[in-house]
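Dear Dr. V.,

Thank you for agreeing to look over these. As mentioned in my earlier message, I'm a first-year student in the group and I'm still getting used to reading structure tokens, so any feedback on how I've presented them would be very welcome. I ran two proteins. I've put each sequence directly above its structure. The first is here:
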Amino acid sequence: MTDFSQLTTEEIDAFLVEHQHALDMSGIEPGDVTTRVENGSAVIEAREYGFAILQLTEAPDGLVPHLWALYIDPDRRGRRMGMAFLRYLLKKYSREYCMSLVCHGPRRRAFFGRAGFCIESKDGEYRRMTTADRETRLRLM
């Protein structure tokens, strides 16, 4: 088993490029993650069992978080590690602004739904989800 907490940014970048289809992602080129981490527009949170990549966009009073990738080693899934990790990310990164993500498939939508995400929009099989419920989104407009 891979210990993701020991991987470099470049190794996580290469892993994401290699496994993007398994993560229902596409169009990720070598160096995308590394460039974004180096210029400060993204962060990697790595654990022994997986990793998350968050895109952070500056706003007047904080950073707007977008969960770009969440990966949990398949041999370690089903032990609630992914949910605990996601809740940690929400607590750390979505203080001022709601967290968003794009996901594909009913299992992923259900997982993120259990963490408090709701569907904001859809494009084919892909769904943009956010932690803001309808009432909260209306207050933010």
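The second protein is here, in the same arrangement:
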Amino acid sequence: MATDILDELFYGRLSPWEEIPKDDPDIAQLIHQQSEISVVLEKSLGGSDRKLFSQYTQSRADLETLLYCHYFKKGFLMGVTFAERMRP
């Protein structure tokens, strides 16, 4: 089973980041709140500030992606290390 999952990851048929857990009310509330704030901010900003805000949100998204990638790799390697130590 573990090798099946690794095959799925390797061939790109499985992505742990494909879904946002919509059944968690805290996450859903934060996504909704962030969206509302973004809309209000964007409407209230002038041209250069709007561009700066857009750059900020893009750099924030890029940072989050890099951090998630780092955490995914670290967690995966920790799992491999754990599995290796559990081998007889």
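From my reading of the second output: The mean pLDDT is 83. The CA atoms of residues 8 and 14 lie 5 Å apart. Does that match how you would interpret it?

Kind regards,
E.
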